[in-house]
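STRUCTURE:
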């Protein structure tokens, strides 16, 4: 993984000096190379201290508990079967793994892939299995235990797990190199269901007790964040192995070496009255311009966005624009002034979307355009849903959510309206970005 870090970093650091075809070749090489539950209903926008991942849980359970008969995989001409992921600890002795493999074969369980995670005592073996559809997780665990396995864990798998580990790690490294906002998602996809927290640097607080190389403590790993502070990853249902710790550390080191970065693409759009605007990604380098936009917004507009008085704008801006917590889109005029912001904030399984459009630029379709693009990003990232926290009187935000053409759920909690959109597996036309130079309609 360190070799991947070095290679990707060297290419990315050249920036525009690297010919486009070379970057495309590197991307093609990487692509083919060997490979929460309840939302936090924040009424303000204080920095979250909870999950920053976006993919929903896959339903894994500890061995010995009954499993539902979920989606099965059935090869052509074969009996009905199902995919399973399994981990078990075996003795580090000649023949131990062979006994386990023979026991699986006796039950007509096919081993599709195997990874080993060496420990100080014993070895953790991670399998991808194809088993008869009628086999339950408990029965699978019993087979493994009888063959000498210990601390066995199983969960249902799907076709995405058929990608081998080297290809998967290379692809995650490439995504992280291109976009700093991908790091939390890459860690989630690398390590499975886990809780990722970004803890700010505080004198005598987070980070002071974490060595430069990071720390691994059973079900918790902590790494020094590139911007200071600590990235904490917790997975209570399954201890981390040294190999997983090394992979996570390599991704964080890659992120640190490349520094702040966002994709440079931007789209030019035309408003109904003929004025041109640009939509692009934003990050903490846009704090000053974003703060200036806030100062031009009316108290009513800010109150609709933040559901209460706005205090320290610098604190809000640094958090909202940080790629550690999500992705931000900015709308700017021909003169370069930012007049709208859209945020996609990682908040567990129900990712939050939030919009702010300067008063003079409202009711021109900007909010709907931002929301559609954010939902398309959430869908691409694997989010199951997005939610917006607003007030019932915010008719613009409610109309924009309805304009997505997605199933919506409404919930009132202490006077605050929460609108949740359930996402389709593939983006709908209503959520697709408007092509370069196209016009956008009014709200």
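SEQUENCE:
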């Amino acid at each position: 993984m360190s070799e991947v870090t070095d290679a990707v970093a060297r290419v990315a650091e050249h920036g525009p000096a690297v010919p486009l075809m070379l970057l495309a070749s590197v991307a093609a090489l990487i692509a083919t190379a060997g490979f929460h539950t309840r939302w936090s209903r924040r009424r303000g926008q204080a920095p979250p201290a909870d999950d920053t991942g976006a993919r929903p849980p896959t339903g894994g359970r500890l061995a010995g508990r009954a499993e539902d008969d979920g989606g099965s995989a059935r090869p052509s001409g074969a009996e009905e079967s199902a995919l399973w992921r399994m981990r078990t600890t075996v003795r580090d002795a000649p023949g131990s793994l062979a006994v386990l493999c023979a026991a699986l074969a006796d039950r007509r369980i096919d081993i599709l892939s195997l990874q080993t995670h060496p420990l100080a005592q014993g070895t953790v073996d991670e399998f991808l299995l194809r088993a008869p559809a009628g086999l339950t997780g408990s029965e699978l665990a019993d087979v493994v235990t009888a063959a000498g396995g210990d601390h066995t864990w199983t969960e249902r798998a799907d076709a995405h797990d058929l990608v081998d580990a080297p290809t998967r790690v290379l692809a995650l490294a490439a995504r992280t190199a291109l976009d700093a906002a991908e790091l939390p998602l890459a860690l989630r996809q690398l390590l499975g269901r886990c809780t990722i927290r970004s803890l700010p640097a505080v004198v005598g607080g987070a980070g002071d007790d974490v060595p430069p190389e990071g720390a691994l403590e059973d079900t918790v790993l902590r790494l020094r964040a590139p911007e200071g502070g600590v990235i904490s990853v917790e997975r209570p249902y399954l201890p981390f192995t040294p190999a997983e710790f090394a992979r996570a550390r390599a991704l964080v080191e890659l992120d640190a070496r490349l520094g702040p970065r966002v994709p440079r693409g931007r789209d030019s759009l035309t408003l109904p009255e003929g004025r041109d605007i640009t939509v692009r990604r934003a990050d903490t380098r846009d704090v000053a311009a974003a703060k200036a936009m806030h100062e031009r917004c009316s108290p009513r507009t800010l109150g609709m966005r933040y559901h209460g008085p706005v205090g320290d704008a610098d604190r809000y801006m640094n958090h909202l624009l940080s790629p550690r917590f999500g992705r931000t889109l900015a709308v700017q005029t021909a003169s370069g002034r930012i007049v709208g912001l859209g945020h996609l904030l990682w908040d567990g399984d129900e990712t939050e979307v939030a919009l702010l459009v300067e008063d003079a630029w409202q009711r021109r379709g900007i909010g709907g355009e931002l929301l559609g693009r954010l939902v398309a990003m959430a869908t691409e990232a694997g989010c199951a849903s997005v939610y917006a926290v607003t007030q019932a009187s915010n008719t613009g935000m409610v109309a924009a959510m309805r304009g997505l053409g997605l199933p919506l759920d409404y919930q009132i909690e202490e006077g605050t309206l929460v609108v949740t959109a359930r996402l389709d597996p593939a983006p709908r036309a209503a959520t697709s970005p408007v092509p370069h130079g196209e016009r956008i309609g009014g709200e």
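REMARK: DSSP finds twelve helices and 17 strands in the chain.
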